[in-house]
Structures are given as structure tokens and as C-alpha cells.
Write a structure and sequence with these properties.
single chain, alpha+beta, Beta-galactosidase, Chain A, domain 5, 15-stranded antiparallel β-sheet
């Protein structure tokens, strides 16, 4: 059985990633890309679907501590065993010829009996490969995949698994290097484990040292930024939503989706988080990925893309996997790619407006693309859509979608008014006014004094907490304050905010879900914007306490069970953490330059 979601730590080489539990088991590993088929898939099934456990032998040992080494993505796990203490160091080196996982066992005191237990399974746990010794290494081959293990520890095969037993004493070290390559190519030359450790530590520490944020939550902010960097596909700058697929939003339920794609809904939050913490190069790479991905017909703008900007993400189910704690179906690909979401037009326009404000984008080519988007939106905004949360219960006139359509028009107006770029600004102003009036007339319930999830409904939506943050209405507007009170009263439990009430919204999927962590950070931002700074800070610190022992957050949280839910680590959660910390850090200053204030500013 897989570990609890919060018991996993991430390793990454910024092209692919793996998850290692507190029990020392590498239960999820995709090679050679984030979205490739898993080599180890025990996370979504059983050990028979592939895993690699490296831990003290016999079951009497206790994992006493885990941490990332300094400000890096190098994981260190220490174990207290009957005979002594041992440390396991796990990381993925910066990629050269091929992707690697390096595991180093160090004896700290006494002598500890260790075991390496390997079950290779390709094709998301479905394919048992041919395993043999070749050129002094162990190799597993099936179809297009080959995985090589280099180690001085001998492994023996038994019951379609490989076992390596050894003993490590104080000051001793054993190393293991796992490398993938196409089976039809010559075997890769294995990296030197200790040299790779030094180089990997140097890379991550140098990157972390460039962080300019020095506020009261620096450790949490930097760890979230490191996580975002680890979720970035290095060749393109695209940031995936999470490293996993099909971790459930409800244990035993069907809300299991593939998040190894890049969502446009993250665009503005990503740009602000990176620029305001000193990572201008990463922000520019994200902006360039965005422009390449959305190039084409404006009416075909998608809500998500592949890590290199691929447009297709065909959704299918993997029936041979039993699902995380029995949560089925297990899905790969994401059918939401074919949905219409009007909010992405606002996200793109807002992101490119902010990139110009930060001095990242003065190109007219981008503006020509934006003008094409606006031409479509002038009529397209009136159409229903599936909304921010990708509901599968039919299109509606979602209020948040209309608000973000207003954002698109507003940023188009600002661009013409405040730069040298030209466009039909009178049309953009008229469109902005038309959308604003439409939302206020149809998306607001005066009886309940709150904006509603979609036109004509009584349901709430946590995304409406963003109304003041995007500048649609000021925080002190009574309609905004009424919405804040309604969300607190109906969607929040112990500070944890649900996206919407599944009983009130026909989202096309049975069952319930947990509280959405990013929305819970938005509540902190809304409180700060409303002048309730102490309450906002308390909300933020409550959310910090939900991080696991190595600072990671999943997508959702089960308030009653006290555990994380959904795919992990979730970029949206960590982006929200960074931006909320920046908002709080700017409260005492006169400039009010936190992300929420800047995004909402009517003068740009």
C-alpha cells in the first residue's frame, strides 16, 4: 500500500520527477519526461506495479528525520536501526546524456543491515521487463525502455524482483545509480555518484542564493520556489501543475486527474511570484513558453498544454492499476484540454500586461497576438463555458469567467493608454464597460449579498475571492465584502476553503472533494486587501502548518481526516503561498506593491 500523500518527497532533474516515501520507497518515477510513462507506479497500485525501496532490513528501523539538504532538492533521510544509524541521500543530477536517480547510503554510527528492493515495471506498472546482468550493470529492458543500475552491491532476482542485501558501518558508503535510456541505443555511461552530488548541490544552492525575498516567511517561500523550479521543464520553461496523476480529491472517489501539464490559469500568479522574488530569467522563460503555446487561432486557445506546448492530451484509463487507496479510475491524459474556459483570455492578457510593466516584454509581435485574442473575445465572451474548475456537467455563464473576460478588456485598454502600442481602444473600453455591467447585473445576488458561481444560481465559488485582486471592484465595495463573508460562512471550515459545494454544482463527477489549498490562500489575500491584516496573517500561518516535513503541499486538504489530498506537489498551492507571503510582506509599506495590490491597481 502506498504511503500517505504527505509522506512523499520530490526529487527532480527539471525534466522528470520521482516521489520517495518516508519508508524509503521510490513509488513514482517517470522517464524521460514528467509526462512519460512511469517506471515505478506503486503510488497508484501495489508494489507489484514497480517501486525501489532502499532502507534498513528487517522492519525494526525508524525513520527519525527527513530534510532537503540546505536550499536544494537533495533529500536526506536518517534511520535509527537496532545496530546503529544510517543516512540515505536521494537526488536526480542535472541531466547530461540520460536521466539518472542517485541513491547514496552513508553509515553514521554502528553497523546497519540494509536492503535494496527493486521491482522494475514499465508502462505505468503493466510491463514486466527482462532483467539481466550486462557489462557489470543490471539492466531491465522491455519495448522502447531500458533502465540500468550501477552499484557495487550485488542484486539477486527472486519472484520478478531484485534484492541487494549489504551492511554499512560508520563512515562507510554505498552508491546506486539508476539510468534510463532507449533500449535500442547503446547503454549510457553512468555518472559518478559523489561528483554528481557535489555538482547538484552547487546548482541548487546557487539558484537559491539568487532569491531576493527576505521577509518573515523566507524559508517557506524559498522552499516553494524550489518546488516550482523542480516542476519546471527546463528546455521550455513550462511549469507543470503537479508531478503526479490520479491522486484523488476524495479517498476512494473518482475525482482523479492527470496534472502533468501546464495550465494557463497559473500564468499571472507564476509571473508575479518569479519576478518579485528575483527570478527574472525564469519569468521570461515562462512568458516565452506561454507565447509559443498559445500561438495560432484565437478561438482555439486552450486551458492547458504539454510541457513543450503540445496541444493534445488524450485522456484514457489504466484498468490494471487499483488506484491510490482504491481510488479509481486511474487516468493519464486530461480531457479538459478540449474545454472552453473564458478566464484563460484574461490570464494571458493580464500576464503579458504585467510582463510589460516589469520590463520583460516590449515586443509588438506579442501585442499582435493579443489583439487577435481580443477580436475573438469581443463576441466570444457572451458564450457559456466550463469555468475555472473544469466542470464536466455542461457549460454555464460562470461569473469568474466573465470577470476574467473583463480583465482581458481592461488590460487591453491599459496597454494602449500607457504604452506606445496601438489598438481600437474605444472598442476595448466599450467592451470593458459592457462586461462589467453584465456581471454586476447577472452574477450578483442582492438578496444574499454575494456574487454567485454562475448567472442565475445560488451557488458560491471560491474563485470570486479574486474579484478585488484583479481590479474588477475595490476591496471596500460592499458586494466584495458580502462575497467574502459568504465564502467564509459557507465554503470555509477551520480556514480551509472548498472551491464550491459539490451538492450545489452539477460538475459531472460523483462524490465530494477536500478543501482547495490555493483557495484557502486566496482567503488570506482577501482578508489583507480588506484591511483585516491580523486575520489574514493568522490564515496564512494556519496554511503553513499543513506543509509536510519537507515543506510540500498537495492540491487539497481533508479537514476531518487531517491529511492532504490530490496531486502533489501542487504548483498552484505553492504559487499561492509565495504570493500570499509577498502580499503580507508589503502591508507595512506605503507603496503597497504586493502582487494583489499591483494586479488590482486601476492605474497599472
Amino acid at each position: 500500500m502506498a504511503s500517505r500523500i504527505e509522506d512523499y518527497a520530490l526529487i527532480s532533474d527539471r525534466l522528470s520527477a520521482g516521489l520517495i516515501g518516508r519508508d524509503g520507497s521510490l513509488d513514482w518515477l517517470c522517464f524521460p519526461r514528467f509526462d512519460s510513462e512511469a517506471v515505478f507506479a506503486a503510488l497508484l497500485g501495489t508494489e507489484e506495479n514497480g517501486h525501489w525501496r532502499l532502507a534498513p532490513r528487517g522492519g525494526a528501523a525508524i525513520c527519525t528525520s527527513r530534510r532537503y539538504r540546505g536550499d536544494t532538492m537533495i533529500l536526506e533521510t536518517e534511520w535509527a536501526a537496532p545496530g546503529g544509524t544510517v543516512r540515505v541521500i536521494d537526488f536526480m543530477p542535472e541531466r547530461d546524456e540520460a536521466p539518472d536517480v542517485v541513491r547514496i547510503v552513508e553509515g553514521i554510527e554502528g553497523r546497519v543491515d540494509m536492503r535494496s528492493e527493486l521491482r522494475f515495471r514499465f508502462g505505468y506498472g503493466d510491463v514486466v521487463p527482462w532483467v539481466r546482468s550486462l557489462d557489470g550493470m543490471m539492466v531491465a529492458i522491455a519495448g522502447p525502455d531500458a533502465v540500468w543500475l550501477a552499484s557495487d552491491v550485488a542484486h539477486v532476482g527472486r519472484d520478478f524482483a531484485s534484492y541487494g542485501d549489504f551492511t554499512v558501518g560508520a563512515g562507510q558508503r554505498e552508491t546506486f545509480t539508476l539510468t534510463w535510456n532507449p533500449s535500442y541505443q547503446h547503454r549510457p555511461y553512468p555518472v559518478d555518484p559523489m561528483a554528481a552530488l557535489v555538482a547538484t548541490e552547487r546548482f541548487w544552492q546557487t539558484w537559491s542564493d539568487a532569491c531576493t525575498y527576505d521577509g518573515p516567511y523566507r524559508d517557506a517561500v524559498l522552499r516553494s520556489l524550489l518546488t516550482l523550479k523542480a516542476l519546471t521543464y527546463a528546455p521550455t520553461g513550462g511549469i507543470i501543475a503537479a508531478a503526479t496523476t490520479s491522486l484523488p480529491e476524495e479517498i476512494g472517489g473518482q475525482r482523479n486527474w492527470d496534472y502533468r501539464y501546464c495550465w494557463l490559469r497559473d500564468a499571472t500568479f507564476t509571473l508575479q511570484a518569479l519576478v518579485k522574488t528575483g527570478y527574472t530569467e525564469e519569468a521570461m522563460a515562462w512568458r516565452e513558453w506561454l507565447l509559443r503555446a498559445i500561438a495560432g487561432s484565437p478561438e482555439r486557445l486552450q486551458i492547458l498544454y504539454g510541457v513543450a506546448g503540445e496541444r493534445h492530451a488524450i485522456e484514457r484509463e489504466l484498468p490494471w492499476l487499483s488506484g491510490y487507496e482504491g481510488s479509481t479510475p486511474v487516468r493519464v491524459g486530461n480531457g479538459a484540454v478540449d474545454q472552453r474556459q473564458l478566464d484563460v483570455y484574461g490570464e494571458v492578457m493580464d500576464t503579458l500586461w504585467l510582463s510589460r510593466s516589469y520590463g520583460l516584454d516590449q515586443e509588438e509581435d506579442a501585442w499582435r497576438l493579443q489583439r487577435g485574442l481580443m477580436t475573438w473575445l469581443e463576441s466570444g465572451w457572451k458564450e457559456p463555458d466550463e469555468g475555472l474548475w473544469e466542470v464536466r456537467g455542461g457549460r454555464k455563464h460562470f461569473t469568474h469567467s466573465k470577470v476574467l473576460a473583463w480583465v482581458a478588456a481592461d488590460r487591453a485598454v491599459r496597454t494602449v493608454e500607457q504604452t506606445e502600442l496601438t489598438g481600437p481602444v474605444d472598442r476595448y473600453r466599450a467592451l470593458r464597460d459592457e462586461i462589467h455591467a453584465d456581471v454586476c447585473a447577472n452574477g450578483y445576488d442582492p438578496d444574499r449579498q454575494t456574487f454567485t458561481q454562475f448567472y442565475g444560481s445560488k451557488a458560491l465559488d471560491a474563485a470570486l475571492l479574486l474579484v478585488p485582486q484583479v481590479g474588477f471592484l475595490p476591496p471596500e465595495d460592499e458586494r466584495v465584502r458580502g462575497t467574502l463573508r459568504a465564502v467564509q460562512g459557507e465554503l470555509a471550515v477551520d480556514g480551509m476553503v472548498r472551491r464550491y459545494d459539490t451538492d450545489d454544482t452539477e460538475d459531472g463527477v460523483p462524490g465530494d472533494e477536500g478543501a482547495f489549498i490555493a483557495c484557502s490562500f486566496w482567503l488570506a489575500d482577501a482578508l489583507v486587501l480588506d484591511g483585516q491584516v491580523a486575520a489574514g496573517r493568522a490564515q496564512f500561518e494556519r496554511l503553513l502548518s499543513l506543509r509536510n516535513d519537507v515543506g510540500l503541499l498537495a492540491e487539497e486538504y481533508d479537514v476531518h481526516a487531517g491529511r492532504q489530498l490530490g496531486n502533489v506537489p501542487q504548483a498552484y498551492s505553492h504559487l499561492a503561498l509565495v504570493n500570499s507571503a509577498l502580499n503580507l510582506a508589503q502591508v507595512p509599506t506605503a507603496g503597497k506593491t504586493g502582487p494583489a495590490e499591483q494586479r488590482a491597481a486601476r492605474d497599472g
